[in-house]
Design goal:
heterodimer; A: about 190 residues; alpha+beta; Heat Shock Protein 90; 8-stranded antiparallel beta sheet; B: alpha/beta; Transcription Regulator spoIIAA; 5-stranded mixed beta sheet; about 45% helix; about 25% strand; globular
């Protein structure tokens, strides 16, 4: 199957968040999905949260545009957010990660309903997953005590897609790679 | 302005006026909301009936408001969640900590 690539280059400024979200209307027609409205809303959330995350974490290089690559390989969509930042910090280390972290998993962020887990695949690659808490046991009061007003973005992306990875390349910056398979309409 | 404040029966009513309730104004909303709760009211209703899309940054502003209100023994309640907005509250499980109503009147009379 042929992969079609569409590239977007956006100034690293939050006022362009809506511009990126509007790419939903460019991408979704390429996929034959059930619940088109619901899927479009999910893709809108993914684009919003990923862009905001990239802007907030590439503070040191805010002159460079963020490059966004959409790879359409039906029914799979891969979205790469590429920036010139240092990558994500795990256990106090930016990539390349030391060998002792390799193949290990660490709690990266906590949210009201679980935690984002960072698994170091190799010296330059982190795979993110979400470990959900048993919510039935918790009262609203307890939950309110734990809830923070930030850091929900990554957990949202993870819940909405199949795979989330940060891949660092020396001299070439950092890449947030998001993979989502759209179940085709039956 | 993307949102407005009104006071009804000593309850602060925040009306979100945008279809996209997102990062572009979430931090100013958060600051304004916290200040209002600190200075005067401890009960808040946020009317989201115009919003068709919310992001985590906006949800964070609501969480900050709820925490502040409960610290003063008040509450922050939500009104008018359209289906895509409701879906976000379900995905983040935040519906568990917010009281959600269909109309502003229902929310006001619940205090």
């Amino acid at each position: 199957m042929k992969t079609n690539k569409i590239k977007l280059s956006v100034p690293p400024d939050l006022k362009f968040t809506a511009t990126i979200e509007n790419f939903v209307d460019v991408i979704m027609p390429h996929f034959n999905v059930q619940n088109r409205v619901d899927m479009s809303n999910k893709l809108r959330s993914i684009l919003n949260e990923a862009f905001v995350n990239v802007i907030r974490h590439s503070k040191e290089n805010l002159d460079e545009n963020v490059e966004i690559l959409f790879e359409i390989e039906k029914p799979k969509l891969v979205i790469d957010f590429h920036d010139q930042g240092r990558g994500i910090q795990v256990q106090g280390h930016f990539p390349p990660y030391p060998d002792e972290l390799k193949s290990n998993s660490f709690t990266f962020q906590k949210t009201i309903d679980g935690e984002v887990v960072a698994h170091i695949e190799d010296n330059n690659t982190v795979n993110l997953s979400f470990r959900e808490y048993d919510m039935d046991e918790m009262s609203a009061k307890e939950m309110l005590k734990n809830v923070k007003d930030g850091g929900m973005g990554l957990s949202l992306i993870i819940k909405l897609v199949d795979r989330v990875r940060f891949i660092y390349k020396e001299g070439k910056g950092n890449r947030l790679e998001i993979t989502k398979t759209f179940e085709p309409q039956k | 302005m993307s949102y407005s404040f009104n006071v009804e029966n000593d309850i602060l009513v925040v009306e979100v006026k945008e279809k996209r309730a997102t990062v572009e104004f979430s931090s100013s909303l958060k600051d304004d909301l916290i200040k209002k709760i600190e200075d005067s009211t401890n009960n808040v209703v946020v009317d989201l009936s115009k919003a068709e899309f919310v992001d985590s940054s906006f949800l964070g502003a609501l969480v900050a408001g709820l925490k502040k209100a409960t610290m003063k023994n008040g509450d922050l309640k939500l009104v008018g969640l359209q289906p895509p907005v409701r879906a976000m509250f379900e995905l983040t499980r935040l519906y568990r900590i917010f009281d959600i109503f269909d109309t502003v009147e229902d929310a006001l009379s619940s205090f």
